């Protein structure tokens, strides 16, 4: 029904175009429930039904983009779209020529539908509130349907639909220490979630030990997958973007220029096999199923969208407008789970990092904080939770000569962001042992 | 229209509020003298808010028909009822006071008085001047015009409107010499009309950042040592925002944000007692500051917004908590319960959080520095989840030695811990050094919400700060 409405909507607008006009439509829709909880109680509950359609209008080498709400009301949508088309035509008349406009093409069709088994409100209540009774449990449940779709006036058409849930949570101790967790997927299973909570309740015990204050300096660390995920997010912010490289904001510039190397143990790729996000971008261009970015420490590819490709006279690889990673994977290594503590020896087990930013983007240097369950490890044994530390360290150390080992397992970490709308995508990352990790405050 | 919808919704709630938000964002982005983007984005929807069994329930819809809003109303009621047995606090109608009135940005020139083509011409001319030097590898000029209308009605008689005209603007240049790459920018966000697009000002600022970025290419690295810092308002914005604004948010203190934005080092008991900063530190919540980005008459729960001191002579007095957080925590607060748009529920936000000017001239402050750096324009920001350990980086610095401004330095960074840092505030610039800055992208909340905040600040001097340079 929704797909049919979307096709009808597109075709009705496309039929009004003149020969010299091109139009790309990108749809985004969600029907989401958000339940915030704090201290094991409900804080705020919000249901959101929203949709939007984004127009890219091109004529005579001029480009204009427009966005309007796309609602359940078919007639209102069409009325608004006619108005939108008029606005596109009027505004475009006054614009200068767009030198880097990419002509639209029919790049095929695709359809991916991931139906889920979402919990009822009773099931959520029964597990979430009963299992966490008396505990300081805080976080947010987000669930529902998400749709991304694309059509253009050349006949291209893509549809992606996913029903899913995410419970992003943390448990706090009286001493303000916390354990972070995520239960996410398409098929809700109350028992499985219950088991995960029980495990967390057991793991939180060690956080109740007196905190260890470490002085600044260099320590051997284990970055658990959730911590490493934060570093990968930073790379995604200009690090693997071709346009960022050309415009002077690329953290991978030194490796690109051959002045630095990463360790052969570091391998990074885009891998849409994770199924977390559509392969098509805002223009309906398809990314390859797999694209190697770093292979055995050597930079193989940067992400290039079609507009960048046009500007610099190179080939696009189907990147999105921001040339960031949408479905990244860091390759696993050989370190077994039960060898992690022994391998740390004396050092810090870091579960999560927080609020990363560049301290010198040109040199690939970044800063950030430890957060949640981070432990001091001595002789391969967990001793105590640590007082949070600030690090300041270069990517060329983290993924370079200081990278000692990579775990044999990876974890899938979906994006849980929801600015404007719930995001899609995510990544698969392992854990890493890194020596001489520099803490500065 | 909103009142008619409200009348026809039906029954089953102790209180109903409808908040309609209609927003248009027009964006022109010129890069290297050529159009990069010309966009107009419209957003329009309604948040239905109900009180049932002592619990607020929210349902947002972009379907503005009676049927669509009714559907949302039913959802909101059922959610409020469903989770009422597990609610964190029992609310009643007093949490949504009656508000009546109309707020309009005091702008001189309406946002539709220039065509998109004219804005392109204006920015192209500006951008042409940015790219003149051969060292410049990239330059851009960008403006985003926002026309935002919020209408609120409720069953207890509230009826208010907030109409804001907002402009975000930025000029930026990146220059390269060998392997050295530096960026310099100028930008702001404020409530203003198209009178902002003044050619003389844009050209002059453009010329300044071009000169400064070329200086940076040849500049020395910022030294690594503990010394004084003189902080310009376009870095003070982040310093105030991250290490005063966020830690004073009462929902953070109550723990609502611990799973995302974080907690706070400030405790409930600290109000009226904690010496947050030196005697010179005076911080207000001021939604009445004309032209500043987050000015308004009522917050999204209908509480009247007024200028209030949060910190006076260094002493912490009051938190950034809306009506719900005030009752939950017992901490005195302000009218800051705000939602980013129609599709989100209101939570505690900063609005305009301003630092009062002092009595020192810029010259006096420089004269008082034996060894220090003068810091301009934030480029990097990071702080821990309790808001203690921060690190900031700036685009441009000047070394100060023996009371005189010396050479330009590149990659200046500094780090510190919030309250010791504010207690080292030793001189505060007079009103001639005051600038009003704003940003549209303060993020927090689950689901996530990006909101507009303003920070007016003079230039300030801090003693004994750990300063360092690039790699
Ligand atoms: Zn913020």
Task: Characterize the structure shown.
- The complex is a heterodimer of chains A (441) and B (471).
- Chain A has helices at residues 2-14, 74-93, 121-131, 190-203, 225-239, 242-246, 253-256, 306-312, 340-344, 395-401, and strands at residues 21-38, 41-59, 62-69, 109-114, 136-152, 157-172, 178-185, 217-223, 268-271, 290-295, 298-299, 327-330, 347-360, 365-378, 381-385, 390-394, 403-414, 426-439.
- Chain A is α+β, with helices and mostly antiparallel strands.
- Chain A has 2 domains: 3-207, 2-Layer Sandwich (PmbA/TldD fold); 217-282 and 289-301 and 327-439, no CATH class.
- In chain A, the strands form 2 sheets. In chain A, strands 8, 9, 10, 11, 12, 13, 14, 15, 16, 17 and 18 form an 11-stranded mixed beta sheet that branches.
- In chain A, helix 1 (2-14) packs parallel to helix 2 and helix 3 (121-131) packs parallel to helix 4 (190-203).
- The termini of chain A are far apart.
- The model of chain A has no long low-confidence stretch (mean pLDDT 96).
- Chain B is of the alpha+beta class.
- Chain B folds into 2 domains: 2-218, 2-Layer Sandwich (PmbA/TldD fold); 221-468, no CATH class.
- Chain B is 21% helix and 41% strand.
- Chain B has 9 helices and 23 strands.
- In chain B, strand 6 and strand 7 form a beta hairpin.
- The longest helix of chain B is centred in the middle third of the chain and has 19 residues, at 199-217.
- Chains A and B meet through strand 1, strand 2, strand 3, helix 2 and helix 3 of A and strand 2, strand 3, helix 2, helix 3 and strand 6 of B.
- Strand 3 (62-69) of chain A pairs parallel with strand 2 of chain B, so a sheet runs across the interface.
- The complex binds zinc ion.
- The site of zinc ion (ZN) has 3 residues of chain B, from helix 5.
- Residues 241, 246, 442 of chain B line the site of zinc ion.
Shape field of chain B: globular
Query: What integer value in Å does the Rg of chain A equal?
Result: 24 Å
CATH superfamily of the largest domain in chain A: PmbA/TldD superfamily
Strand fraction of chain B equals 35-45%
Classify the helix fraction of chain A into a percent range.
10-25%
Mean pLDDT level of chain B: 97
**Average residue-wise pLDDT of chain A:** 96
Say how many strands of chain A there are: 18
In DSSP terms (H or I, runs of 4 or more residues), the helix count of chain A works out at 10
